[in-house]
Amino acid sequence: MPEDRIHQNETDSPGKNAPAASPLNRPPSGPGNQPPDANSAGSNSGGNVGPAKRRTVARFVRIYVPIIISIILAVEVGVQAWIYNQQRITMNEQRAIMDKQLDRISEQVNASQRQVDEMKNQSGTFDQTLKATQGIETSSQESAKAAQESAGITRQSFALLERPALGLVGVGKPQIEAGKPGVVQVEVKNYGHVPARNATVKAGVFAKPAGDINTPCPETPNKLNPAGIGSRTVIAANGTRVAPASSILSATPVDIDRIMVKKTYWVYVYVLARYGDKREYFFEYYARYNLGTEVWEDCGTHNRAN
Predict the structure, then answer these.
(1) How far out from the chain centre does Cα 270 lie?
(2) 181 close to 234: Cβ distance less than 8 angstroms
(3) Percent of the chain whose pLDDT exceeds 90
(4) Structure pTM?
(5) Number of H helices, E strands in the chain
(6) CATH number for the domain whose boundaries are 166-298
(7) What's the pLDDT tens digit per position in 55-87?
(8) Which residues in 136-151 are b (16+ Cβ under 10 Å) and which e?
(9) Are 168 and 186 in contact (CB under 8 A)?
(10) Where exactly are the structural domains of the chain?
């Protein structure tokens, strides 16, 4: 009985009959099998935060900044287009009002003509009536002619509102230095309501022997220095451009003595501007500089525009 009890106790006690742990059953130890260090893992993940943010910012700048700039430019273009459209609508309304006025004038002319025709039919019997009718007819024809001329002027005035118009703002004093070409600053302005496209401004300076104050300006030389604005450009409505006019040859001390001291030579400037898209427009300016009054005096020729 005691032996059975002892055997039962040995069987029921845990671990007493389990084999002892052997070095072969233990997991190998070493650097490769150590548990990951929490501090080292955290340091590795934290070290990549800076470059990741920089890459995110760079990608945002590369993708979204051009889109934002494009949106701003599109809004600006849209606002300008809206302004031009409002101007066009206003001009169309003015043109519609003018057309209505012209229609009324035409109706009045037609009514007068009908009255003349009726009076002609009744004039076969009465000479006095015929004479009066002829007088009325003449007056009506004159009124009709005046109305047509007025309508033509109105149309021309309206056409001027829809075209560019370059003109001269001012001409500076001649700048003459020894060893350099003579220079005169010429400023032009677009007085029209639409941009002047394909605009070129050629300007030249030259000197001629002086004469009497009433002496006409000489003919412009065939060859002038192609200064000014040589390449085709666009001058906006109410916009201005400076076109420097210059001489072909450089000034010498003798030239300066003749022009500035003895005043035996006069300085001339000639400006020719061409512009337009479907139709070509131009204006030219030709003047002589009065050294006594220091004022540019217009010449009698080559001062035209269309």
Answers:
(1) 26
(2) no
(3) 34
(4) 0.48
(5) 5, 8
(6) 2.60.40.10
(7) 998 898 999 999 999 999 999 999 989 998 998
(8) ebeebeeebeebeeeb
(9) yes
(10) 66-115+127-162, 166-298
